[in-house]
Amino acid sequence: MSSISAPQPRVNTPVRLLGATAHLVVVGLLGGLVFAALVTFLSVGLGLLPVLGIGALFLIAFIYLLFATAFTETARVEGLYGFGMPMLRPRRSPKRGFVGFLHTMWLQFIDAGMWRAIAHFAIATVLGWIVLAATSTFASGIAAAFSPLYANGASVPIAGFRITSTFAAVIGVAAAVLSLALIFGLAMLHGVLSRVLIAPIREAQLAAAARDASAQRQDAIRASDVERTRIERDLHDGVQPRLVSVGMTLGLAQQKIDADPEKAKELLAEAHTSTKAAITELRQLARGIHASVLDDRGLDAALSAVASRSHIPVVLDVRMPGRVDRDAEAAVYFAIAESLTNAAKHSRATEARVTVRARPETGSLWARVEDNGVGGARVLAGGGLDGIQNRIAALGGTCRLDSPAGGPTSLEVSVPCAS
């Protein structure tokens, strides 16, 4: 099976060679300062690590400075050559708390893409120093080429050497030409190294994106399986037995309608009550599959309806400037509805609080459900919380459950969305 990849941009066009030369001059001027700062943070951090852990702060700053340097270098190369790379993203640990923070630092420290960019920046810094020296030689060569007009027999400096005025013009021209060739040769080398070191970051990111898409697909399949199982269970355990009971009651009423009309009336009333209860259960089941009020009036109104039906008091705090992506609204709605249902069934809570925020700066819809119950909630395969996690993950979102023994229980979800 063959694949067709997009053509890579040319890195040796005249415009890009001039741009690379300018970049190398700037990197040569600033690279030494950046690496001096990195070495300082690393050495001070390692030296002060035994002193009450103060060195850990410097080591954390060292990792952040590494990432900032790699991010800037990747953005610089992308702006110069246009490889079509997404920018580097900081690594995140799935673990929580202080252990999760340490794991995040470790994941960032071992990130291969970051170290590729750092290696490229180091090489570019050295190339920048050579370009600066070659530029100085080029300038002195040009000046020496015109030395017969002003030297008056005196020696002329070229690249730190004193050349007699007799040969200064010839040597100056040769030095200028060679320096210019060296500068553009280094610019071409910069492009080649960028293709070798930086461009593969894009391939790694695309591979990671493909893995994420595959994982999201699996989560979507699991979410649909969990939802189908829930619907089957609700029908089998709730509505179906009630309808069977209605049928049996109506059969008994039919038998007694002539011999005992009063008893038949009682049975009909009982069947009528059971029928209304079955209709209510069917409505709740349909609402769990699709909330029409969500489409008609938005997330705020839909959550208000959920809160009004909840068996425990719910405090709603929904702040959204307008409608967002329908799939994101639906995922957050069902996550909140399922969380409130679990709280009412298992937590013995007396109050729940729901907070929803649209975050346009990150392009996400965020929600938090918290109750003051006994805690101890766990994600079980096929359970409600498992369904929430699968539904959120299928949209590329994140879900975090915090439910220590003794409570409180909180569930946070964040789903990418478009307004």
UniProtKB/TrEMBL annotation:
Q: What is its EC number?
A: 2.7.13.3
Q: State one molecular function term (GO).
A: protein dimerization activity
Q: Which UniProt keywords apply?
A: ATP-binding, Kinase, Membrane, Nucleotide-binding, Phosphoprotein, Transferase, Transmembrane, Transmembrane helix, Two-component regulatory system
Question: What sequence ranges are listed for the domain Histidine kinase/HSP90-like ATPase?
Answer: 327-419
Q: Which SUPFAM superfamilies match?
A: ATPase domain of HSP90 chaperone/DNA topoisomerase II/histidine kinase
Q: What is this protein called?
A: histidine kinase
- Which residue positions does the secretion signal occupy? none
Q: Name one Pfam family in it.
A: HATPase_c
Which superkingdom heads the taxonomic lineage of this protein's source?
Answer: Bacteria
The chemistry this enzyme catalyses reads: ATP + protein L-histidine = ADP + protein N-phospho-L-histidine
Q: Name one GO cellular component term.
A: membrane
What top-tier enzyme class does this entry carry?
A: transferase
